[in-house]
Batch of 3 targets.
Target 1
Amino acid sequence: MPREAEPSQNEKDFILKAVREGHRLDGRALDQFRQLDLKFGDQYGIADVTLGKTRILTKVTAEVTVPYTDRPFDGIFTITTELSPMASPAFEVNRPTETEVLLSRLLEKTVRRSNALDTESLCLVAGQKCWSIRVDLHVLSHDGNLIDASCLAVVAALRHFRKPDTSMEGDTLTVYTPAEREPVPLSWLHSPFCITFSFFGTISIGEDGEEKDIWLLDTTLLEEQLRVSSCTISMNKHGEICQVAKPGGAPVEAVTVLQCSSLALQKVKDLSDFVDQKLAEDSKHRNKGGLLAELSAENAR
Amino acid sequence: MFLRVICSPQLPASSSQIGRKNLIWVESNGGRYIPAVGDLVIGTVHHSAADFFYVTLSDYTSNATLPQLAFEMASKKNRPQLHSGDLVYARVSLANRHMDPELECVSPSTGKAEGLGPLSEGMLYSISLGMARRLLMRKSAEEGKVVVLDELGSAGLAFETAVGRNGKMWVNSKDMKTVLVVGRAVTETDEKSLAVEQQKKLVRKLVKEMA
Amino acid sequence: MPLDTSTYNLALLRVDGRRWNELRQQGNTKIQCIITGPNERDASKNTSSSASTAPTAGGAGATLAVSIMIAPFATVDRKRRGRNDKRVQEMQTTIACGLAAAVQGQAYGPRSTIHIALNVLSQDGSLLAGLINAASLALVDAGVPMTDYLVACTAGSTSSYAAADEAADPLLDLNTQEEQELPFLTLATLGATDKVVAMVCESRVQLTRLEGMMATAADGCKAARDFLDGVVRDKGELMVQEGAIGRGEVVSSMDLD
């Protein structure tokens, strides 16, 4: 199995020493994110997220299919992740690594299980026809913090996506092309975001030898390889936790976890505002000359 | 990505370089490192076997071999003890297309280390191949248009560096902050392809921040 | 040579009708754990890719390989689960990484692997917590050196996420029905400390509710630790009575904690 190149002992020692003294290689503060950028494609439902050197591309597609027999009133919503060998030597095609399994599970729990997308609204004819929404996520470049970046990309792409408009007249279902009717956005309930905290052991503060956990936000790949444990908290801006996962690793004080969760709320609000702003910019850009307003006025029934 | 055309001879002179004098090198900033005889590289020891150390030079490639006796003053009884994860500064002594490259940490003609050998402490930075090449030039300021290291030195920082042609740079100093500043200055120069004036400005900014 | 092969049945217990903070005395979650090894790490590691592994002591110690089998008759719907179920794989990883924090792996060589096979015979809530406790207990019984028990417990909160009432009561150790209805989390701590080794929460819950749930779960972990410790001590006593071990030996090893 190909492995990620292990960082050398010199790098390990230096980074741990620097982190203990509160410094990071790129000069960021311990709780600072890297430069975050979000671009939407020409089509609806394409989001390209860059976070430092990490780059993630997501595309949303929709098609009409038959719903699952045990859930006749729900549409189908799937998220697939692909970590190609291009992004890191540790990834292989057709053999999901642990990173990939954990990533897709986290996205599943954060976006799907938290009901961010109203799957009931995807139902067209109960038990017969429904929309199947599929999110394809590709990691183009891996420089750490895949989880936070992926979650942001998925949420942004889904919120940007427009599915074709449909109508029911008697027994006939009509799906309109974008030329006939302006596509409609998905029924979106809330926007969850992941914030991953990486722990680097403890330092003693003060003279009474009190131990304090050291943690970083938005770690690079190198930092990620050296962390002793991590904790991912997913939340929306209303302060609802959608998922918390700390998959083993070195123990951390319970108080630290609580502190992290309140800081996560703050960061989630920042990310949420960032996506809102980018979506607004995009719709403004698309709506040059008020063409959209004109079309939607015509289509209003 | 930018291309450079470089006229020989800028390579560190050694016996193996004869015959490469009148070559023109076309270098790009991307791609992966392909070993060539005489290149100075920084590798990470992967593991050691009976007679060799296996050294990783870059991702996606197989390990290079470094004979345990290819060190200064090394003998069967007195050979360096390198462990997995240690850094080593070495010269490529053999590079055939379909074979794993071979390294040495001693000059075969003089038997001296000439600065090669294990690198302890410090920090390793990844830089682009083009940058590594520019830093390794004899007159890196005039021909390579990199002045960051000179500027940092004249700003009063004390540090030592080693540059590997495989896109690695090792920086060490007594002061941890100096290492961080040197690393940031070089990587930023590399990533943003800064011109000479911009490099000077960056160094001034970083030194000011540090103080 | 395998160090020890031991089998443990762990029934996490309680008939409902209990108070909010009572652990189940006889629940319907039943888990069997088998420890094999340490063996030499096999080169054909890739073939057994269904197990999740985690190195102990920063790669210098033995590796833990955890595999979970959920019997088709363990749940009500009797659905057969695929080997590559991502939910199971995630649990395997959580258990392997969690135990790696407690096991003193440097007692074995870096090329050795301890296999932990968990069989779920009957499933009635708090599955992950039960698996962690079972694995922890089995490791102790197998004589694998550990800093402390890794104990886990679930805690939930009455009223669903939408209701923002502050009066919601925390609940301890949930069964399947409660798990489906209420938000809950699984917390694993190292022994009786407040140090969180693993924490998994899969449901929507208000941030303000988290602290109460974590405190409840931590109390549950302490109770679980005492319970596990009791089981181990009882077994030790029994072994002495049967003459399997000399008295002095037991006393010295029991005095450690």
Note: The helical segments of chain C are 86-100, 127-141, 176-181, 207-242, 247-254.
Target 2
Amino acid sequence: MRHTKIVAAAAAVAASGIAATTAQAEELTLCWAAWDPANALVELSKDFEAQSGHTMNFEFVPWPNFADRMLNELNSGGQLCDLLIGDSQWIGGGAENGHYVQLNDFFDAEGISMDDFAPATVYAYSTWPKGEPNYYALPAMGDANGWFYRRDWFENEEIKAAYMEATGQELREPQSQMELMQIAKFFQEREIDGQTRYGVSIFTERGSEGITMGATGALYAWGFKYETEPGTYQMDGAVNSAEAIEALEFYKELYQCCTPPGYTDAYMEQSLDAYKSGQVAMAMNWFAFFPGLYADPNTGGDTIGFFVNPPQNVAASTLGGQGISVVSYSDKQDAALEYIKWFAQPDIQAKWWELGGYSAHNSVLNDPGFVESAPFAGDFLDAMGGVQDFWQEPAYAELLLAMQKRLHDYIVADVGTAEEALNKLIEDWTETFEDEGKL
Amino acid sequence: MANLAESAARATPPSVARRVRGLSDRAIAWIFVAPTIFLLLAVNIFPLIWTIRLSFTNFRANRNREVEWVGLRNYERILTDSDIWLTMQATAHFLIWTIVFQVLIGFTLAWLINKNFRGNDFLTTMIVLPMMLSPAVVGNFWTFLYQPQIGLFNYIVSFFTGVDPSSFEMIGSVNLAPWAIVIVDTWMWTPFVMLICLAGLRSIPEYIYEAAEIDRASKWRQFWTITIPMVLPFLMLAVLFRGIENFKMFDLVVLLTGGGPGSTTELTSINLKREAFEKWRTGYASAYAIILFVTVFGLASIYVKALNKVKER
């Protein structure tokens, strides 16, 4: 009898233990784009799984379909994602439409301070309305649009001499947008190692966000603003300013003069392909790809160089990157918040940078060894100091598609003038803001 | 609907009615017909009425805000939007030229295949292969063929004309892109038109040609007075099918050009998808869909009447 009681008690204890573990361990799904940093995050998250007992699943969607897929998921109140690393422009819609959980109370309770993260990333990835201390995401992946180039060609004495002869200047990393075009023109259709090479690969993609992200690199460098006064939605005089027109004309000329044939619908993947196949001397892309490019045994290492988006009137870069949010439709919000708490730790952020993710945590960025930690780290810091982002309004998709259309019509299809394109863009955006009740 | 129920009742054998006690033949007929009618109402009629209702509002499916009645504003915006008329033009260009090429080439192929020769069956199978492929495969496949640096299409054109293969871009040029999508659709769907024409040609009784021979009618006269009139209803049917299909063409063009360069190949279906599921202007997109529906329905009705007249002749 005594023996039976002991066995029964042991069974009860074991059963309660199993029950407790089962109740706490969750299967979390994290949704993001399918690209190099996502693989790094899978690796990093193994540490979280070991610590928490939760299991991490990942839903990675290729970039061209990422916005479509994820915004449809959010709009339909889907429960696929517990955590979402969504684009910076989604923050307005995520907050106003109730897709994201507001994190202020959680941050206060867990002692997570937004002062520990780079201000530009907090502003861009976390806050809504912009700059207000209402946080809907933790900065997860700092990013900006930068450039990389064939360092081996730039350092080749024969090519350098030819460039000096052609332009009277030294071949170097471009210090301005105009110098970038000059270098691109020099390389366009030049025979190097028996093959025809081209100047640059730039973003021209029509379907999602490509051409807007590329052209804004020039627009911001010329001093482009969306509004005459922030928050007024008054765009006439800002969007179609003389500087904006000049910048757009520059981007079109860069596309026409210096890209390889057939690059009419090119975004991240095509830019990488153009570079890796040895077609172009310079290419634009997100810093997120730079660790992979540098590590490439064929086209990385000493043969590749990196530079920040060159200034023209001002130093500025197009913002990329994302914050990590808890999806309000998830029924595993506690476990998802645990993940965010874990991810915000300085040592995890340091490991994130080591694995190839771009931490936005000050402890990583301000580390004395950071600039020397990778050949592009210094450029990344420079870029993040001057990043600008597209509208982050709830109607961002509509605003973005209008810009995609107007820019592609002007730059690639060669329809109308830059001024007409920007004026039409103002008309489109005005209509959107009127529908939104903001004008 | 009552007629439908009555005819169903008439078709119901008396024994069935006897087995179901207490129910009239008419009631039994309704029980059988009701699921179909319900499905029809739920899947076709209700969404149509709902879409008409939404088209008069500013509803957005992705927003939690009050829906306002905007009257005819969505319709007015669409019909006065020059960009929408450009997509209509692009659609008309695509529709007209694909049908012209598919009918001409499809009929010619059917005419040739209809002759008895060795390898006829094998050749027919080879010709119909493209229409068996998925549009996703065809779209990707032709994107590579059109690539200006490595694409086979450019090299073939270069071989025959002597122009530099990388000097022109089929899907990147404003002038060539509309033709690029016409070429691919023609390549893919001409076999369909050919098969319908072949059915028409094979349905012409041989004795009519024999009678014409006896009357010493030339081959040319036989072609215009026998072949064409007798194949015409089949041809018109093929045109109707291809017309409806190409009016709502989406997948192939999205994969080939994405509607670009600029908006050169942005057909109405692509534009409508952007409005409805990327910009989420649900009310506006509903009005757009209704306008397209009325256009297709109107044109198809006129066409079907013409087709019936041809068949009566």
Note: Chain B has a mean pLDDT of 90.
Target 3
Amino acid sequence: MNQWEELQQAAFAKRISRRDFMRRATALGVSTALATGVLGRAGYAQTPKKGGKFVIGIGHGATTDSLDPATYPDQMTGIVGWGASSNSLTEMDEKGNVVGDLAESFEPSDDAKSWVFKLRKGVTFHNGKAVTANDVVASYMHHMGPDSKSAAKSILASVSEVKADGDNIVFTLSGGNADFPFYASDYHLPIMPAKDDGTVDWQSGIRTGPFSIESFDPGVGAKLKRNPNFYKDVWFDEFEVKVIADVAARTNALTSGEIHFMDRCDLKTVNLLKRNKDLEVNQVTGYGHYIFVMNTQQAPFDNPDVRNALKYAIDREEILQKVFLGYGTVGNDNPIAPSIQYAINPEPIHSYNPDMVRELLKKAGLDSLSVDLSVSDAAFSGAVDAGTLFKESAAKAGININVVREADDAYWDAVWLKKPFVASYWNGRPVQDWMFTTAYAADAAWNDTFWKNPRFNELLVAARSETDSTKRAAQYAEMQQLLHDDGGLINIVFNSYVSANSTAVAHGDLLSNWDVDGMKIASRWWFA
Amino acid sequence: MNDASTLAKVPRARRSKAIAAWRELKKAPWSAWFGMIVLTGYIVVALFAPLIAPYGESEVVSPGSFDVWSAQYWFGTDQLGRDILSRMIYAARNSMGIAFAATAVAFITGGLLGIVAALLRGWVDQVASRLVDAVMAIPSLIFALMVLAIFEKTEVYHIILVIGFVDATRVFRLTRAVAMNVVSLDFVEAARLRGEGTGWIVRREIIPNIMPPLLTEFGLRYCFVFLTISALSFLGLGLQPPTADWGAMVKETATLFTYARDDFQAGITPLLPAGAIALLTVSINFIVDWFLHKTSGLRDGQ
Amino acid sequence: MLAARDAMHPILRTVLQRLALGLLTLFIVSVVISSLVEMLPGNFAKRILGQAATPETVAAFEKEIGLDKPALERYFVWVGDVVTGEFGSSFTSRVGYQRKVADLITPRLKNTLFLASMTAVIAVPLALFLGILAALYRNSWFDRMVNSATLTTISMPEFFMAYVLMLFLAVIWQIFPSLASVDHDTPLWERIYRCTLPALTLTLVIVAHMMRMTRAAIINLLASPYIEMARLKGMSKSRVIMRHALPNAWAPIVNVIAFNLAYLIVGVVVVEVVFTYPGIGQLMVDAVRTKDMPVVQACALIFAATYILLNLTADIISIATNPRLLHPR
């Protein structure tokens, strides 16, 4: 018994090979089924096998969803309209590297101002038509141009020209960007068939991916069938996504075996879910982070001492434990997740310190401070609770925070970027330049802290085209430090994606760039 | 009786009314007594919440979350480490108060409009009836959802006014129908011929005669309002935090149900606030039921 | 008393009058709904783009779906379309990808009607049966038990009852599925099986109301002189109720049934959410959230029309069963 437990611990710590584990388990008289189950839960790659219908339940999804990648809002469209059915030029691997997907390889020019992507040979669309460079150009043009309303418009803003050159696609950028292949892995950028007039056919749902879409019923679900001609192995025969908005209903569907996988578990009760032997709970810390942002142009937040006082007045650890039940990593007012290249953990660590708060307030010439904090669960699930706890901890340090719960529906429109102190959320980006350009550059459309630091912006441009990695690391370290010391961002936690699945299905290491195994669950999982 | 005759006229009338009421009460069935005792209990708890609750409404008392039941925290703590019993006690005040205010709004506006429509008839009645028809034809929950979404943040009085307004349409319908019957009765005609003013007729003839069905309706409406507010909380439009509310408390803990067979106490936690709602509405319904029974019983004896 | 031949005319006249009033009500509903949606903060373009809404993307989007035109103009264009039987396209339509409101609503409406009829088939006979029995054995332990039980079900929040049923019948004893997800090619028997839990929940919600009204209406009549007379003639209690009380009690009973049937169609959002049932309520809530005006309008019209027609039917039945109502003083 003791030996078996030790063996299991060894497996979970990955101290032992798959083969050794099975041999020793058999020697201990443990059944093969039980041993395989443990291996699966410990995250060992098993030999995948083909077949079966895989059904998942997803918390997102609305009747307004469509297969137009320009307006993919969330997991539902991301999984159906991208991960399962489509491919981008590149994709992310488990370690956070960018690798070719529909592009076999990609090369920059010396100054990283131009990138050449070489198309993979022999790939076809679901209707049998071969994928050409023109399809890629049309798919990119779909998001560009003055009339574009695409969510990918901003990340392609630096692209001045896309053209086909035989089997190659050539991107010309307005400034050097060493990270461009990361951008090409975005889920808004699947490759779709071009029409004769140069526009793209997204309406039919005909793509290149591991599954072809049989039916897509917005707000309800989708059914997909394996693409026999896909260029990689795919295991499931059929794949179905159900939209189950209510978390209790989602949990019930999983425990009663109607679905094999659910995303976004109810954190409050996930410990009880773990007791179920037929289920496995997965936790992936991604790049996403839950934050409070201050408008650094508006009083009292225009004073850096006030900003820092608030940064020390929040008890991040308490919020992590109580609101997110420990599922996540506390933030340190740096939006760059530790797993991202060139990430640092800036000193001094911002943790709850009421004395420091009083000192900083005195420095700012204030006896006390009273501010309104706008929150809504539309910003992130738990924002209202997090705000309530912030109020309690700040009160002990002499800051009165008035928590205002805003309407969910209009939150991003009427509150975010409008009110001076609000709860917000970033999905995070796989590279620093992308994150900074999106939200911290002085002229960024989504600069939600309205922070305009000249040194930071200078470094941002310099680092973008810097190909010497030592210099680049130093530049990014300085930028993160600046943001930490002076910015208007209170990073509460990097959140974890917590999902659960039946042990009937198995998987390898999970991707951390997006939830639901990087939205590619359909092609990466199999029946155990 | 001799003592009574020496008293002034008005107090005597009052006293005999009180005696009659007490006699009626003594005849009430056990269910009505149960309802009245429970309701009184709820009202006492709501009025003296700060004295009764062991901890504050939003006070974080425990460093952990979802503490188990103990002598210190009778029903454990919630997701933020706040005492569930204390929150339930404060919620009695909030939930009952809001539902009462909304129902009162509904009865004052809907009832008055209904009487006016029945008295005046003609175009006033037509306009009011058409508007009420239109609002009633829109599902009330969706209507409330839409109106509440207009306000950037939901305040308590928004909920009271919106729910009160939606419910006023139902009250209007009933009052108008009942008052219409009374208005056409002979004694009202007689009063009119006697030259009594409209106000007098409304106060002395109409209101006393439509009171029994309206009181019954008040009880039922109150329960409906209660459930509507909890449904709104369920769909994500409720009170400002950290205000405690039974409906929201059920929603916050609803997933615990799934685990009732593994962990009984955790499993029934959402039952506590839901049970509080149910017990209150059942009690009110018991009282209403007795009332109905009494009015129809009187007719039996005639 | 009028001759039977003439009595038909007032009924017809009432029906026509009510239909005209119904149309007027529909018009008022459309005005109310339009103004409410206009008053909501934000608009469809901003809702859909969410965090991704920059002024340029919003402007491009608004232009494509015609939101750049003034509200009044959009409303009158819409009224013109509806009069010609055209509900227009959802704002989610794109160039080359039309989503007709009618195509969006039809499958959802069918689902809603299916669940409503399934519930009605269980609930209405059950309520009548329990109501008559309770009236018959008034004040007996049976009456009290049924009364207390129905009072309790009517007092519970809907989602709570749904969860309790789910807990017992889907999680602990896995008899029924907890998901009522159906689509157009779900076979009938599976559809019924999947809809059992939502139908049961709704039954518990509406039975109490109908049963109590049946009981009250009958008991109310038991006090009338003609019933007294029948009883004095030595008729049995059950015969008195079935022959004399029930036929005259139809008016209030039918009214409360109509009210509850309307509720089954327009008021089941919460149950749809809990059981993930693709009904029309969720469609409308989604559309309200995103301000997809054409869909909101169409749903509101359907709801209002259902409500009006069911009430009209109830009125006609009450009038037909009680000619005295034809001549209000």
Note: Chain B touches chain A at residues 58, 60, 63-66, 79-81, 148-149, 151-154, 236-237, 240-242, 252-259, 262-263, 266 (CB under 8 Å).
